[in-house]
Amino acid sequence: MKLFLSSFLILFSMHSFGAYKYETVLDNLDDAWSFVFLNEDTILYTEMPGKLKIASLTNKSIIDIGNVPEVAYSSQGGLSEVILDPDFDSNNKIYISYSAKKDNKKITLYLSSADLKNNELVNRKVIFEANAFRRSPAHMGAKIAFLNDGTLLLTSGDGYDHREKAQKLDNHFGKIIRINKDGTIPQDNPFILNQNALSDIYSYGHRNMQGLVVTSSGLIFEHEHGPKGGDELNIIKPSLNYGWPAITYGIDYSGAVISPFTEKEGMEQPLFTWIPSIAPSDMIFYEKDVYPELKNNFLITGLVSKDVKQININDLTTQKSLFSDLKSRLRNIQDSPQGYIYILTDGPNNKLIKILPK
Amino acid sequence: MRIAKYPFAVLSAALFTVMLITPISSISNLIWLNSVNMPIGIFKSLEVLLFDFQRLGILLYGIIIIGFGIAFSIASFLTNYINFSVKYLYALAGACAIGIAMYLMVVLLFESELLGGNRTIIGKILHWCAGFFGGYFYYFLISKNYDYTFIIRYLGVLYAYIILGFVLSWIFTPEIAAADFGFILKELTDNAQNALLRDFTSFFVASFVFVLLGVITLNPAWFYSAGIIYLGAAIFNLVAIFIHGTEYNQIYIGEILLGLWPISLALTISIKDK
């Protein structure tokens, strides 16, 4: 009995308090930025220089996808997010966001749809071009998510040099955009009747949003890079102003004050702020069962913090640090169809790591 | 003293130019905040100006010293060959130095404009003008002779200028100030937060005031007082690392520098007064 009890205690403690183990499933990727699961073994992923690829996680084979749009790859720009249509199994449609030069030689954010057929993008169509032209691809945002009603959200960053425009509704700097899958504008968008506003704007007053999640219950959560200090986790609601740069908890990289205010009526407060900055780069809301201790938690990758922040949706005041022993800048996080968590590290020669349950 | 005059003129002209340039970004930012109905008043404006003068100013100061050092050396060389008013030659050199520095900041920072005040044509012109006046001020400084108290006072003001940043940060943005020292303020208890804020603020305010009093009175006791505070911090930092087993850090190097700096000023005054 004693032996059984002690064995049980040892097993129990390993399960509860043991460290996560990691398995590198892909490496030497060329600045991969985002990925999505086609099935449990296969991912579709972007590389910032403008490559879209399919990789098998078991036999490690990699296939280049053809007819990918030309992108402006430098600084924070390039081929960014890829997501699947909710009906991908029947229509093979995907969506990609990227920064590219317009005829005027200035750079802006694009969202294209295309059918993925025979390792080619066919019927490729630009469904959104941001009215946010800049000379360098800084603070692009570029995260995409589907709402439960089938419309698309896209984050469009403030462009760094254009931060004040995040408070104006006549441009796409610092905005979350909502459009239909074909690029048309939903008639129930919040600014559809405002003649001084672009009708595809869903919310405004954002900085550089690199995490966007829609939960199964339909809530929208977003996080954004603050300047020096003041990274934010927000719950997004239509028409609301999130304050940047009129209110902020951070200061500029130069040390200058951006605003001496942290709050104002009519401007939303974040659910959580990070001071010092963690540079949040992606986020999932984990709703599966492989890691019971992570269920109903936001998992947020950090570039500067080099870990994943775990925040429970029922307690948004505290966070835990996970996977810091990877000691890498973390770029992207996804859960597979079966519920396994995969993390992409950041930069050139980056790798994809599978998190094994405790 | 004659040899020291030129580098100290560069340092002084750079500081003078920082005082002209920093408010360009601050005021353009305040004007924008006012335009979106943020309640900007005198105290908020003063807070922004002081913070920017210290934090943004430190960054600019380093850049401008390098720019002025090169520009005034070239201007000095050209005075031998060009028949042109020397004071205006230095003024133009100052304007060129600022213009090139602002351009290089954009090119080297991923085509992004770090200085908010330099994003408009008017802002750019104002920056060049500040450089022009900085050059003119440099000529004014090198055309006169000074005694050692000029350098003592200059180095004392520069020291206070550096410490001012800590003072402002701990008073107005304690969460950011605490983060710089490795504390996540909101994770501390109320008592711990209070202790941290009062002790750190008092530490920096005291050393700031001591040095300012030293600059005004030239009484070496004030400079010794400031120096002892930081040398003490360095010694007990090392005690914490090597005796109490805290993690190694290199902050003690800065603390030793901040301790030796005012003590050197005090010793100079004491020796000269003998």
Write structural notes for this entry.
The complex is a heterodimer of chains A (358) and B (274). Chain A is built from two helices and 24 strands. With 358 residues, chain A is mainly β. In chain A, a hairpin with a 3-residue loop joins strand 3 and strand 4 (51-56). With 274 residues, chain B is mainly alpha-helical. Chain B has two domains: 2-142, no CATH class; 148-273, no CATH class. Chain B contains nine helices and no strands. At the A-B interface, loops of A face helix 1, helix 2 and helix 6 of B.
Quickly list its features:
heterodimer, A: 358 residues, mainly beta, four-stranded antiparallel beta sheet, 2 helices, 6% helix, globular, B: 274 residues, mainly alpha, 2 domains, 9 helices
Oligomer: heterodimer
Provide mean pLDDT of chain B, rounded.
Answer: 90
As for the number of domains of chain B, it is: 2
Unreliable runs of chain B, pLDDT <50, ≥5 residues?
A: none
Helix run count of chain A? 2
Write down the Rg of chain A.
20 Å
Residues in helices of chain A, as a percent range: under 10%
Number of strands of chain A: 24
Biggest protein-protein contact in the assembly: A-B, 29 and 34 residues
Strand order of the biggest β-sheet of chain A: 1-24-23-22
